[in-house]
């Protein structure tokens, strides 16, 4: 019976993952900025009342992060898996997005995730039973390895999280038995393009409907994603049980295709201009 601590559980991936954890007989520490939003989830799983702990957690507040882990230990004695999922998107051209909106998104998507990550690693190492370690699942996005028009600042938060997570994984002592996996979902049906996301007003210079950001916005609004969030989180639940987890995990056919295209393009550019790096060493 694994103990999961999941952030951002009021809607979307976090909500679905919490349900799956409970349905499989595990323990869920479900956290959200507004814990009252989880009343329906608790009502749907009355038999799991002793395996569900609902907590207030605003990832922008350090004290909330520490308190959530402390409460989990007080009730269940350990935390085995942390699903670092809380986040949101403000979309629009880079020139359209106010600095305040971009900074607020970074505060949640990057700094909030970093706070949870640091406490998770410390907790796995120092609070869990010796050698038990833990699994840290970092929820990034296909936009964390591929920038799309209209997603500049959102992509920047996820690119930052990916670099942070790669560095964190490289720093961990193998003896701690802590693994980090970056989940990179493609398009799934959640409320990401409803209440949890907003589009900045279009900058006058980008008003032509045929420009890339406008076209991308139409695609997102008029052609909803095909991924089933429930099925996606069933895969993530399965992933967490692997003895050896991957560092990167593109989730969904579009994410897999995007990862392959990005890698291919990167390697093609690298190979094409590799010779330009010859002879750049200092003369001795």
TrEMBL record:
It comes from Ganoderma sinense ZZ0214-1. It comes from the Eukaryota. Belongs to the short-chain dehydrogenases/reductases (SDR) family. PROSITE patterns: ADH_SHORT (PS00061). GO terms for molecular function: oxidoreductase activity. This is Uncharacterized protein. InterPro entries: NAD(P)-bd_dom_sf (IPR036291), Sc_DH/Rdtase_CS (IPR020904), SDR_fam (IPR002347), SDR_oxidoreductase (IPR051911). Coiled coil: none annotated. The keyword Oxidoreductase applies. Keywords: NADP, Oxidoreductase. Pfam families: adh_short. The keyword Metal-binding does not apply.
């Amino acid at each position: 019976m694994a103990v999961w601590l999941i952030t951002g559980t009021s809607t979307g991936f976090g909500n679905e993952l919490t349900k799956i954890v409970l349905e499989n007989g595990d323990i869920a520490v479900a956290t959200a900025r507004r814990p009252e939003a989880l009343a329906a989830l608790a009502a749907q799983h009355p038999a799991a009342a002793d395996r569900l702990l609902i907590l207030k957690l605003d990832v922008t507040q350090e004290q909330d992060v520490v308190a959530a882990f402390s409460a989990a230990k007080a009730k269940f004695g350990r935390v085995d898996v942390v699903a670092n999922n809380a986040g949101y998107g403000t979309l629009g051209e880079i020139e359209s997005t106010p600095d305040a909106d971009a900074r607020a998104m970074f505060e949640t998507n990057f700094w909030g995730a970093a706070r949870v990550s640091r406490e998770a690693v410390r907790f796995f190492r120092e609070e869990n039973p010796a050698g038990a370690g833990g699994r840290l699942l970092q929820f990034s996005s296909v936009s964390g390895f591929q920038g799309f028009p209209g997603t500049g600042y959102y992509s920047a938060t996820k690119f930052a999280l990916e670099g942070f997570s790669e560095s964190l994984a490289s720093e961990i002592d193998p003896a701690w038995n802590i693994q980090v996996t970056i989940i990179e979902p493609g398009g799934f049906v959640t409320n990401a393009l409803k209440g949890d996301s907003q589009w900045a007003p279009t900058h006058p210079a980008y008003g032509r409907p045929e420009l890339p950001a406008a076209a991308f916005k139409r695609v997102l609004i008029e052609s909803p994603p095909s991924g089933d969030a429930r099925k996606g989180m069933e895969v993530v639940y399965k992933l967490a049980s692997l003895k050896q987890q991957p560092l990167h995990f593109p989730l969904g056919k579009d994410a897999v295709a995007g990862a392959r295209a990005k890698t291919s393009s990167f390697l093609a550019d690298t190979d094409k201009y590799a010779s330009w790096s010859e002879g750049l060493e200092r003369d001795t």
